[in-house]
Amino acid sequence: MTTFTVIGTGSMGTAITGVLQRGGAAVTTIAHSDFGTKPVDGDMVVLALPYPALAEVVSAYGSQLAGRIVVDITNPLDFSTFDALVVPSDSSAAAELQQQLPEAKVLKAFNTNFAATLASGHVGDQPTTVLIAGDDAQAKQTLAQAVAAGGLRAVDAGSLKRARELEAVGFLQLTLAAGERIGWTGGFALEH
Questions:
Q1: pTM for this structure?
Q2: Each residue of 88-114: pLDDT tens digit?
Q3: For a pLDDT cut of 70, what percent of the chain falls above it?
Q4: CB-based burial of residue 83 (10 Å sphere; 0-12 exposed, 13-18 middle, 19+ buried)?
């Protein structure tokens, strides 16, 4: 069975850990305060951190991430204005991370979900759906199986190039919630 390390113990890290544990997965966590002192031991590593922390993760854990599946959940927003993504228009946070970790299998997932919808398992009357993008089909399938075992739906959103669109959806959803147009317990849902 695939083992997981979730780096980040905030609301998203806690919610993702809960989903994985509900599905029976073995999960270890690393808090931001433990960076560099606690090793990564999971086959799959979920980076449940804000976008600016990715550079610190690469610095502290880059060599340990080689050969592992690395899941980027970030939305690279300009948090000072909440009005733009801070990556080039032809790229994504996940693509940048893949360049920095060439020996890892980077996936984009969970960035279009709020912590509350991961924890509750639904968005309105629809089951929570985790969209997964990446270039490694087996890595995507492994994550999809863990998500499904945890009671959520998983949809393959395509190659890592689709991370840009997932980040745009995440950006839109965050700005709607911050502007109080939708609740933090809601968001976008997919009918199956």
A1: 0.96
A2: 999 999 999 999 999 999 999 999 999
A3: 100
A4: exposed
Q: What is the chain's length?
A: 192
Please give the DSSP secondary-structure letter assigned to residue 89. T
121 by DSSP, 3-state: which?
Answer: coil
List Cα–Cα distances, 54 to 51, 72, 76, 101, 143, in angstroms: 6, 9, 10, 11, 20
- Count CB neighbours of 109 within 10 A: 25
**Which strands sit side by side in the sheet containing 129-134, from one edge to the other?**
26-30, 3-7, 44-47, 69-72, 105-109, 129-134, 153-158
Q: Are 133 and 160 in contact (CB under 8 A)?
A: yes
- Listed residue (90, 13, 78) closest to 47, CA to CA: 13
The Cα–Cα gap between 151 and 10 comes to: 21
How far CA 46 is from CA of 20, 52, 161, in Å, comes to 11, 15, 19
| Extended beta strands in the chain, E state | 3-7, 26-30, 44-47, 69-72, 105-109, 122-123, 126-127, 129-134, 153-158
Q: Candidates 3.30.470.20, 3.40.50.720, 3.40.50.150, 3.40.830.10; correct CATH number of 3-178?
A: 3.40.50.720
Instruction: Name 191's Cβ contacts closer than 8 Å, sequence gap at least 6.
Output: 126
Which residues are CB-contacts of 33 (< 8 A; sequence separation ≥ 6)?
A: none
Closest of 151, 146, 161, 156 to residue 43, by C-alpha = 146
